[in-house]
Each structure stands twice: as C-alpha cells, then as structure tokens.
Design a protein that fits this description.
Pfam families: Glyco_transf_4, Glycos_transf_1
Keywords: Transferase
Number of domains: 2
Shape: globular
GO molecular function: glycosyltransferase activity
Oligomer: single chain
InterPro entries: Glyco_trans_1, Glyco_trans_4-like_N, Glycosyltransferase_grp1
Helix content: 25-40%
CATH architecture of the largest domain: 3-Layer(aba) Sandwich
Protein name: Glycosyltransferase family 1 protein
Number of helices: 13
C-alpha cells in the first residue's frame, strides 16, 4: 500500500521546526515502512519545492501560493492537483491529513480517499483553553471533517470533544499516537554524560548548577506554554521545595509567547511565580537535541505533565517507555494513557497541594518508582508501540480502500 501524509510540519533540518504532529507522522511512517508500505510526506508551507528521502520516507516539499486574498484557496487547489497527479501515477493510494486548521476543507481529489486523523484542531484547543477561536479556522476544520472519506482520532476524548464543539455526530476509529520502543529504551541511553545543568541553560544565574544525575530531580519536557500547565508548575514546585529543599526542577522545551496575556515569554512569567527558595532550584535548559531529551528523562526521578490541553501526548508515552514514574494531569484524555495509581498518578493541575504531595510520595518511595516504571513500559508496549499502531492504521486504510 502507498500512503501519503499531508502536513505543515515534519522533523527534519530541510523542512524546519516541528511539533507533535510532525513527530507522530514520522513515527507512524516508520512503522508503515516496516509493514511493507510506501510512504510519502507532503509538507506544505515550505520555502522551496523539493523531494528528498529520510530513512526510506519520501519527503516532498511544497510552497504555498501567494496571492492576496486567495492564497488559502489557491494553495489548497495546488495540493489537490499534486494529490491527483500522484494518485493517477499510482504513486499513492490514500492521503491522510491532520485536523489542525482544516487544510483539506477545499481539497477534493478525483478518486484518492482522504483520511483525517484528530490530533487536536484549533477549535478543540481553544475550547479546552476556554478562549475564542478564529472563525475561519473553525469553518475550515468543520468543512474538512464533514468531507473526509475516513476519520481517525488519537483518543476517544478528542473524538467526543470534537463532535461536541463542531455539533457533529461523526464516527471516529480510535488509533493512538505511537513511539519507537527501540529508540526509547534504557539500553540505548547514555547515562554517563558529564554535562552540567548550567552549561546550556537560559536562566540568568538563577539555578543551583548541580549535576542533574541525582534522586531528587523533577523533569518537565515540552513547550513552555500556558495550556500545558506551565503557569501552575511554579506553585506546585513551591510546595515541593517547602517540604523537600533538596528537590530540583529541570525544564526542557521551547519558550512560547503567552497568547492570553500577550507576554512574549512564558518562562519570564514563570520566574515571577516561584518562591525565592524554589527559583534557586530551577534549571531551564531551553530546547535541546532529541537524543539529549532521552538522556534527561532517564536521569530524572519524576516526570511531570500538568497540562490542560492535549489530544494524546507523545511526551507522556516517551517517559513511560523509559520506565519513569509520572505525575500528570487528570483531564479528559489522561486515563487513556495512564492508569491512576497503576503506572502513574493523575491529579488536576490546579490542585497544587495534592499534585505536590504525589511528587513527594514518588521521590521518597524508590520501590513505587520502579513499580510504576515497569507497569508504564508494559502499557506502552501493549498499546503505543509503532508496530501495534502501524498495523491498526494499515487495517483501517485497507478497509477504506476496499
């Protein structure tokens, strides 16, 4: 089978920065390749046209058309023509696109089936954030969903919420995000790194400078943004430090402007929320290479994800695969990833005292850390491995084509 993915992002130096959608597509693409499929990724909004290969995946870069007032329509028609040509030339059998901004809203290939996989639309995230959505995004996202030949969602919560916010009654097949467990495996982690936490940090001297390879390290990795609970994390950590002064907090990820307050830096906003004692124990490393993130996860004692808005977070699965004990948000999608009290703890991000208590509990109980870590890895192997998810996706594609 020949599968194409239409996306605004893909994790490769030639295609620019990428978030969760691009990472999810690459993971799935590698799994489909292993199943004998041909995979092409159509990356739009590129600076130049081009085709290259990434570990067997054909990456096609596509420039948007610039024409005042009609760029959105002409770009969609260009993508439609590309899809039709590839289908007519028997280079693809099916194309999958994300729900974000509804890129397929005016794309109607002659014969090629179009699948949309929910990873969270702008309308979905605005609903969870309780803020207004741009009407044009809502329009395109709803139209794309109504016109799709097949519908997938990475979580049941995201499917149900999407139907609710768009006033639809669509049936979604639930297939989660996945990771390569051969990559996220403690046997492949370099735990002997001599990197000091303040070598690349962006904290203006407000950190302790100790090596992070210790039993008192709390790690958050992901974008520094309000919707992921980063404005709650300081209050949680303040409670932890008041009871465990030796606790350290490591932050990894891109600093994102705050869309609600208009502040240019979430990290700067966070610094004002930490107590003086807690701030001394915080290290912000900024964005780091992917391989280094794995090292940081492996050396952490507890990973925390106090998020308010997700579809099905890959970061949680990565930490689980590396057998980390986790305290995460208990909102919506969370029980589809973590079983509370079995392979992690789930707590509402605004319940600072309870959240901090769970972190402290894990930091002080090494046996529970191991118990949660072992159960977490087992859960990932059974539900979120590339092999499992690729096979589920392939069965869905085959049923749609037939």
């Amino acid at each position: 089978m020949k599968i194409a993915f239409l996306t605004p992002e893909y994790p490769h130096p030639k295609t620019g920065g990428s978030g969760g959608i691009g990472t999810s597509i690459k993971n799935l693409a590698m799994g489909l390749l292993a199943e004998g499929c041909s995979v092409r990724v159509l990356v739009y909004a590129q600076k130049e046209e081009g085709v290259f290969y990434d570990n067997g995946i054909c990456i096609q870069q596509i420039r948007n058309i610039k024409f005042k007032g009609l760029s959105w329509y002409l770009t969609r028609k260009k993508l439609e023509n590309n899809i039709n040509t590839l289908y007519d030339n028997k280079e693809i059998d099916l194309v999958e696109a994300p729900d974000w901004t509804g890129i397929t809203s005016f794309i109607s290939p002659k014969k090629c089936p179009v699948v949309i996989r929910l990873n969270g639309s702008d309308t979905y995230f605005c609903h969870l954030d309780q803020r207004p959505v741009k009407w044009v995004n809502r329009f395109h996202e709803k139209r794309a969903l109504k016109n799709a030949d097949g519908l997938l969602s990475v979580s049941q919560f995201t499917a149900d919420t999407t139907n609710e916010v768009f006033h639809l009654d669509k049936k979604f097949s639930i297939i989660p995000n996945c990771i390569d467990m051969d990559v996220f495996n403690n046997n492949n982690i370099n735990c002997n790194s001599n990197n000091n936490v303040n070598e690349n940090c962006h904290n203006n001297g407000t950190v302790n400078g100790n090596n992070i390879n210790n039993k008192n390290t709390i790690l958050y990795f992901g974008s520094l943004i309000r919707k992921k609970g980063l404005l709650e994390l300081p209050f949680i950590f303040n409670v932890v430090v008041a009871k465990k002064p030796e606790a350290k907090l490591i932050l990894i990820g891109k600093d994102v402007p705050d869309i609600i307050s208009g502040h240019s830096s979430t990290w700067q906003m966070m610094q004002g929320l930490f107590s003086p004692a807690a701030l001394l124990n915080v290290t912000y490393l900024g964005a780091v290479p992917y391989d280094e993130i794995k090292n940081q996860i492996s050396r952490a004692t507890v990973c925390v994800f106090p998020t308010f808005a997700e579809a099905l977070p890959v970061s949680w699965i990565e930490a689980m695969a590396l057998e980390k004990s986790i305290v995460a948000s208990n909102i919506g999608w969370a029980p589809e990833v973590i079983d509370d009290g079995v392979n992690g703890f789930l707590v509402h991000p605004k319940d600072h005292l309870h959240y901090a208590a769970k972190i402290i509990h894990l930091m002080e109980d090494s046996d529970l850390q191991k118990e949660f870590g072992s159960a977490a890895k087992k859960k990932v192997s059974e539900k979120f491995s590339i092999q499992k998810v690729a096979l589920q996706s392939l069965i869905f594609y085959q049923s749609l084509i037939q």
